[in-house]
Amino acid sequence: MSEILVATGLHAGYGLSTVLEGISVALRPGHICAILGRNGVGKTTLIRTLCGHCRVREGSVRLAGEDVTNLAPHLMATRSVGLVPQGRRLFRSLSVREHLTVGARHAAAGAHGWTAERVLDTFPALRGRLSNLGGMLSGGEQSMVAIGRALVGNPRVLLLDEPSEGLSPALVKQVGDVLQMLRDDGIAILLVEQNFGLALRLADTVHIMSKGRIVHSGSADELQLRAGDQGTVPGDLRRAGMPASRGVDCAAGQENRPPEARRRDTRFVR
Ligand SMILES: Nc1ncnc2c1ncn2[C@@H]1O[C@H](COP(=O)(O)OP(=O)(O)OP(=O)(O)O)[C@@H](O)[C@H]1O
Ligand SMILES: [Mg+2]
Question: What does pTM read for this prediction?
Answer without folding.
Answer: 0.87
